[in-house]
Each structure stands twice: as structure tokens, then as C-alpha cells.
Amino acid sequence: MNLVLFGPPGAGKGTQAKILKETRGLPQLSTGDMLRAAIAEGTPLGTRCKALLDKGELVPDEVVIDIIAQRYDQPDCAGGAVFDGFPRTIPQAEALDAMLAARGKRIDLVLELKVDDSVLLSRVEARIKAGGVLRSDDTPETLRYRLGVYYKNTAPLIDYYRRQGKLKTVDGMAPVDAVTSQIAAVLDAVPA
Ligand code: AMP
Description:
Blueprint: E1 2-6, H1 13-24, E2 28-30, H2 31-41, H3 44-55, H4 61-72, E3 81-84, H5 90-102, E4 109-114, H6 117-130, H7 140-154, H8 156-163, E5 167-171, H9 176-188
Parallel strand pairs: 1-3, 1-4, 2-3, 4-5
């Protein structure tokens, strides 16, 4: 099964993708994690993208389309994958559809984690207060910027997938376990 986890920054996509890896064996394909790894390793790609990530700006479509295609061709994705933080623009969604079609696959389901902006902001503030290690883009200011980017570039995908009949929405403001249960119920209702 190929699944897209969709939602605004901080909605809990990464948390749920990790749980799906444990419970369903579907690898988590997070473009954000791949880009942060490239930055940490100091690769040319990482160097090129660092300022964009720090600011909360999207990296160019062709960059993420390319890294996703390379990752998807690894053997562990033969049974499908969970796309986390990708696609984030209509051209990315179209490229993903084309990439999967070329491999005789398709997106089966898009799970939208719905979370209000005020809850996303409170979550960042709580993380700052807790005092752990934070990402460079994990500040209220950058989150506000990223939300602007999300509504402008990424939210139009909701209609894109709704038109394809693939969109299911869950309440991302519920406790983590409850979100996991809602997702499990949706997945279990998908015909094999
Ligand atoms: P994330 O870990 O998904 O929150 O992504 C962190 C940052 O990586 C984003 O703010 C963007 O700068 C970049 N990024 C991740 N995925 C994408 C994508 N699909 N398209 C463009 N930029 C992305």
C-alpha cells in the first residue's frame, strides 16, 4: 500500500509514519528527514538546501522529486511506503502519480491530519519550554512562515486528492494513541 500522510507542519505526520512502520512494515519516506541528513553530511545537495530549510521555504520541486524516486526504488519499498511531507505542491503530486504509474503502482490513500493553527503553535511553544534539542525551524516565527507556505502551496492538494476519491481526514488534535487508532480504522476499511 502506498500512503500519503498529509497535514500542516507539526501535525504529527512523522510520529504516525514511524508507528505505521512498526505496525504495518511500511517504510517512512520523509523528504524533510532526507534533506536534514544531506545537510548534516554536508553534501552539495545539503549545502544548497540548508538556508531554505532554516527559513521554512520549500526546496525546488525537482530536488525532492528526484530524492523520492531514488528512495522509492530501494527494495524495502517493494510493498509500498508512507510518504511523509511529500508531495507539498501540485507539480510534486503529479510527478508522484507519474512515478508510481511508471512502476505499475499508485497512491492508495491520502490521510489528512487536521490540526488548527493555534494548536500547532502551542505545540512548538511546549517543545521550547520542555527544553530538548530542537530543529532549526522549530520556532513560533518559522512555524508561522511555514504555515503561510503550507496554505499557499500545499493545501490545494486536499482538493487534488479529494477529486481522486483518495482523501480521508482524521482529527490530528486527538492524543497520539487516538490518532493512531483512527488511522488504523481507516486503513483496515481499505479493500485489500
Ligand atoms: P518536514 O520535515 O517535512 O517538516 O520538512 C522540513 C523542511 O524541508 C521544509 O520546511 C522544506 O524546507 C523542506 N521540505 C521537506 N519536504 C519538502 C517537499 N516535499 N517539498 C519542498 N520542500 C520540502
